[in-house]
Each structure stands twice: as structure tokens, then as C-alpha cells.
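Thread: Modeling a multi-component assembly for a lab meeting

Hi all, long-time lurker, first post. My supervisor asked me to bring a structural picture of a complex we are working on to next week's group meeting, and I have zero experience with this. I have the sequence lines for every component (558 residues in total). Could someone generate the structure of the whole assembly? Inputs are pasted exactly as I received them:
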Amino acid sequence: MSLGFVQRRFMSSALQKFAYNLSGFHKYGLMRDDVLFENDDVKEALRRIPQKVIDERNYRMLRAMQLSLQKEILPKEQWTKLEEDKLYLTPIVEQVIKERNEREEWEKDH
Amino acid sequence: MASNLSKATVLRAVPVRCFSSGANHIPVSGVPNYCAEISKLQNGLKVVSTENCSPLARISILFKAGSRFENYETLGVTHVLRIAAGLSTQNATQFSIMRHIQQVGASLTCSTDREVISYTLEGTREAVKEASPFFAEVATKQVFRPWEISDNTDRLKLELKIRPYELRALDLLHKAAYRDRGLGNSLFIGKTKIGKISSETLQHYFCQHFVASKGTVAAVGFEHNDVLKFAEKLKIRESCDENCMKSTYTSGEARLEKGGNLTYIAMGKEGGRLIPSNEALVYGILQHVYGTKPGVPYGAGGCSVLARCVTSNVPSASVQAINANYSDSGLFGVLVCVPAANAGTAVSLVAKALSSTDITEADVKRGKAQLMRSMLSSLESGANIVENLGIQALFSDNALDAVGISNAIAGISPNDVIQAARKVASSKLSIASIGNLKTVPFLDELTC
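Re: Modeling a multi-component assembly
Sure thing. I ran the full set together rather than chain by chain. Output:
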């Protein structure tokens, strides 16, 4: 929550865009949620999203790997823009983490 | 806020005290002449409750949403709903529901039949109080998460596999008698529908049928005011319309060849409706006149009509009368289990017995006594009391206690039962059979 708060309050949208463009993955046509580290929470979240979204994600990842092998990047007009980068997985990962925390809290007390 | 809290504790103290001071005098199963109070909330939800001083309390939420309300697209939805009881809801996860209910030692069950889906919580008084918020969530605030539903499809498959043939014969009898519509719908999901019921379908069915005017809250072991408060807090949606497709009895037959040595045959004719309750009781007596389970161990040759007509000629057959009462129709018939070679004889004998009106007053007297016994012994358990009260309140505006029901049984005249037997005899026959069908005749081959 705090990071989001800082981002919203103190990071201008221009700065946010600058940081996003600096990260580089957008040049391969990836989105933020495509580069999440696949730990158990993310794996569980991936199980919960519709097949269509999974297919799109897999396509983007395949394309990025192919580009990386060929030491290329996409033409500039196909780069992901920050406005188009929808967080399709993060809310579900947060839900999974909440559920895990609930379980862990219960195990502590009982 | 503070005043409310103290009020609640005072209320809580009363029944607990009653119980502890009366523990030496009141039997564990409570008193039999509990008097049920029934009232209706503004949104149309009915509330029925009784205090029988038993240490166990039960609360149940029922909706008229059984399998008869399914249509062709949603066949099997009630089976999935039954499986989905206890999954995550709007405000509680599956994990927290399960753990909180288990931790206090309560038990939550969901059962469905052709008319009603009911959720029941039972436990000691304290446990039920503590677990009731989770119970309310399970029954009224469902969200059907697709991944949780798909995780549970194996349970559907298991339930389909472990259905006994007796049950399947009865299911087939409904299918034959009501022609695949309304009451003819199976209680179980079809094999081809497994995994095809989406969470949107479930949500739509839930919104359509889990509404206040089709619901009842029943409780045993609570003050009526407490139950009213609980029911008001449920905030169940008011409904727009109550369009229930009427089911009409039509004769038919269904056969399922499964091989093996045994044949299970369910034969039925049109029986009595659930309401007025007198009609259901008359057919209940008639059921005992025809004969149910033997009252003495291994006492197959009894004095029932079926024993006279069928078992005396085919001793290897196990026969038992069945009586199912629904809000607008009913089935009365016989369930037969017999070695395949004798099935044909048994079926024609049962068909003959079902169209005979050869019933004496002594038969009726025995039937009455047997029904009284089985009714009272089933109402000894609070679990059956809460179910019974709920169903009575759901379909009519009064709810009889055990004493009231036994008085009603005593008040039925032999003539009523003989009239009912005549009505059954004149009705058309339906027949459903499963197992080895080598000798089972088709419906039009039966001569009677």
C-alpha cells in the first residue's frame, strides 16, 4: 500500500513513465505482470484467471523470448505503453497472499 | 452500543440457565410437546422456531430451490450448489468458514431434494451462536469462484459413482412419471454436464431462487425473538415473481440395463400432495398399510398388503412401499429388489397389488400405529424436528409439533385411507427399472 501511496502522491506521472521506460521489458512487448517472479502465490493466481488472459500472456512471453534469442527488440510503435499496461494479475496475487496470511495467522493461534 | 451488548448477554443467560437448572428432569433429546412459533418478516421471509430445552441447538435456512426448478440448460445446478456449500463467500473464505465452524465443534450440512435446498447448522447452544455468522454467509452470501468450483468436480463424480441402485430406480421413476420436466429432474447432475455448469449459471440460479419469499429460517433451541433478529440481519433479497412450473403426473417408463444378478424396480402411481398435511398423512398411512421395512428383524412375511400379495408368492423379493409428497403432486408406489429370474413375476404381482382396493379396517389400524411410531421416533431427533418445521412453514402457514402430528394421524378416518387407495388404484402406472432387465416386462405388457 505504501509504495502505491508514494507513487500516487509524490511521483509525477512523467517520472513514473520515465522509470517505466527505463526498465526495458516494455521494448519486448511485455507487461508488468508478465515479469513477476513465479512463486507459489503467483502460480496460484495464474490458476485463477481466465484462459484467454493466460493465452495472451503466453504469447507475449514467447514473443519476448524469440526476440531475446535474436538479440532484437520490437519496433518502437509496438512497445508497451504505461497506459496500456493493465495489472491483470496483481490484484489476484494480493488476494492469494491475503488468504495465505489468514491461514498462517490461524496456524499461529491454534 | 453498550446497552445493546448487555441486552444480548441477558437474553443469552436465560436459556442457558433454564437448561442447567432443568438438566435433571429434561431428557437429552428435549421435550416432545414443544410449541412452534411462526412469523413472517416484512420482506416475506418466514421464521419458525421452538424451544425444546435440548442441549443441542439447530438452525436451518431453507429455500424453495430444489431440482424441480431447473430447466434444460441448468440441469444439475442444484447438485453443484450442494457441493458448493462452504466454499468462499462474499465476506469469508472457505478456510475461515471451515476452521471457525470446526473450532467450536458445530457441524454444517447442506441437503437438497426436488423442492428444497436447506442449510443446517447444529451444535451445542454456544457453538451455534458463535458459528452462526459463518452459517449465514454460507447460506445467503454465496459467490461461486470458478477455480473453487472446478476443484470440486471430483466430488460430483464420486457422488455419481456411489449412488445405490435403489436411489437410481427412484430417480428414474420420477423421470418416467413427470417426463423430464419439473419433478422429473434428477437430483444428480448428468455425466455430460460435469464441468459445464459455469459460475455465472450458479450465480443466476442463486439470485433467482434464494429470495425472501421462497425462504424460511427454522430453529430449534432458540427464543423466537433471537431467531427473528438473526433472520432480519440476513438481508435476503426480495423477489420479483414466483413462477413455479406446475408438474403434472403422466404415466411412463424408464429402463436402464446394467447387468448383474439383481433387478431394482420402482413402480408408482399418482399419490398425495404435501399440503394439506392431512393428505400427506393419509398417504403415509397407506404406505404403511402396503408395507415398509419389516418391523421385526428378518420378519419379511408380515401382514402388510405387499407381504400378502407379493412376498408370499415370490419369497426372494424385497418389497417396500414408497410415498413421496410434493407441493402440487405426489408419487405412491413400490420399490422392488429381486433376483433377475423372478423379476417378471414380482412386477406383475406388484402391479396387481397397486390396483387392488382390498384394504380392511384392521390394515388401516395397523398402518396408523406404524406411521405414528415411525413419525414420533423420527421426531425424537432435533435434526428431524428442524427439517420438519422448516418444510411445514415453507409450504403452509402453520407448523405442527410431534404431539400435533400424532393427533392429526389419530384423527384420520379409515374411510379416507380407503378412498386414497381407490384413487391410487384408478391412476395410471409408471415403472422404472435398473439392473438385469431380462424378465422385466414393458409397461404395455402388464395386464392390469
